[in-house]
Amino acid sequence: MSKYLRHFTTVGDDHIAHWHNEGLHEAREETGPATGQLPHLQVTFRDSLKRLYSSDRFQIAVVCLVILDAFFVLGELLIDLSIIKLEHGHVAPQIFHYLSLALLTFFMVELAGKLFAYRLEFFHHKFEVFDGLVVIVSFILDIVYIASEDAFDGMGLLILLRLWRVARIVNGILVSVKSRADREVQTLKESNDHLVQQVNDLQEHNGKMEKENSKLRALLRQHKIEF
Question: What does the alpha-carbon distance between residue 179 and residue 207 come to, in Å, rounded to a whole number?
Answer without folding.
Answer: 42
